[in-house]
Amino acid sequence: VVAGEQTAGRARLQRSWLTPKGNVALSVILYPGLAHLPSLIMLASLAVVHCIKTVTGLKAGIKWPNDVLINGKKTCGILVESDVRANTVHCAIIGIGINVNLRPADFPEIKNIATSLAQESGRDVSCLSITRSLLVEIERLYQALTAGESLYEEWRDNLVTLGQEICVRSGETTYEGAAESVARDGSLLLRDKEGCLTTIVAGDVTLRA
Question: What average pLDDT does the structure give for the chain?
C-alpha cells in the first residue's frame, strides 16, 4: 500500500510522521510464521539500506532498533505491527517512510536531526526507483528468511549504535551505558558503568552528550 502523501502518519511510540509529496510512504502486508516476527525489523531496515545504496550510492546505517541514518541524521523510519492470536500470526504490517526529496530546512522542528536522499546526494531522487528497489529487496530478504537464512549478522554489522555511549528510554525506565551488542532476537545489550549487562527489548535511543 503506497501513499503519495501523508498528513497524519503514525510513527513509533505514538509519534506523528509527516510525509509531504516527493517522498516514500508505504506499508507491506506479510503473513510470516511466529518465529520470523523478530526478524522483520531486521529485514525492513536492511532492505532500506540496500535500496538507498542501489539507487543513490549513499551509505546508510541503522540506529537500533529501526531508524535508518545517513551521516548521523535520520532519513527513514520503520514501524512493524503484527496481529497475533493464540500463537498464530494473522498478519504483520511493515510501515516504511523514507525522506527522499524532503528539504529539512523547510521543517524547523526536524532540520537538525533529519536529512533526505536528495539532501545527501545533491540531486532529486526518483521515488518510483526507490519504491521499486525497496520492494525487490523486501521480497528477496523475506524469501531468504522463510527459507531458513539468518539476517542477524548483516543487520548487526550495519548497526551504527554499537560501541556508542547511549541513553535508552524503555517505558518509564531510562538506561545509560555502552551499546555492547545485540541478541539474535534483536534485543540490545547495554553495559552500564558498574559493568552490569542489561537486555533491552524495545526503547528509544539517543547518544549521550
Answer: 90
